[in-house]
Amino acid sequence: CFVCSQSGATITCRETGCDRSFHLPCAVEGECVTQFFHPYSAFCWEHRPVQAVETDPEDTTTCLICLDLVGDRRAYGTLVCPVCKHAWFHRECIQGQAISNGFMRFQCPLCRDKDQFRLEMHTMGIRIPKRAPSSRDRGLAELLARHSRCDASECLCPGGREQVEEEGPWQLLLCSSCAAEGTHRFCSDLRNSTSSWECNSC
């Protein structure tokens, strides 16, 4: 094992020509990435995948999970949401959330994207168990649920405040600041080209 120098290392870097091997428990210490999906690839610190991030975190950026600073540069122990690009967190914090939430509830803590976020975290070596959320997490289901009703003072939708469509006049836009209130495009006289909206409170 190139990390602990002991025998019995059965995981080898997938990069052609690289002969580094390591134990699974040594992966984090050696800053290696092991991917928990077919074909179950593993990479040493030199050849591991890195996130395509345009900017480094600022020196005051905190992890959205533990609220400690993440540092002012990209590193193995720091990950960011590929969708909103504002949610930074420690690798061990997001791994803990993945274990707790399970595949169905695992999402970005900030923008709540699931598809791209899960794919990126999988690629970066985060193990997301394919099971229901733990009992501790089920109690938070309502807090994690995406807002799904029109809160306009007068909702004009024939199907009511709960009716939501993918596009058109009854598409629901959530407040771009708090995401706690929403409106149908038609109810707030928003054009089809409008991509963001803020509620009166914000």
From TrEMBL:
Gene3D superfamilies to which the protein is assigned, alphabetical: Zinc/RING finger domain, C3HC4 (zinc finger) (3.30.40.10)
A Pfam family assignment:
PHD_G2E3
Which InterPro entries does the record match to this protein? Answer: EPHD, PHD-type_Zinc_Finger, PHD_PHF7/G2E3-like, Zinc_finger_PHD-type_CS, Znf_FYVE_PHD, Znf_PHD, Znf_RING, Znf_RING/FYVE/PHD
Is this entry keyworded Zinc-finger? yes
Q: Which domain of life is it from?
A: Eukaryota
Looking at the record, the residues that make up the RING-type domain are 63-112
Give the GO molecular function terms.
Answer: ligase activity; zinc ion binding
PHD-type domain spans which residues? 1-48
Alphabetically sorted, this entry's keywords are: Ligase, Metal-binding, Zinc, Zinc-finger
* A cellular component term, taken from the record's GO annotations: nucleus
Which PANTHER family does the entry mention?
Answer: PHD FINGER PROTEIN (PTHR12420), PHD FINGER PROTEIN 7 (PTHR12420:SF47)
- The protein, known as: G2E3 ligase
What organism, scientifically named, is this protein from? Hemiprocne comata
Traced from the root, the source organism's taxonomic lineage reads: Eukaryota, Metazoa, Chordata, Craniata, Vertebrata
User: Coding gene?
Assistant: G2e3_0
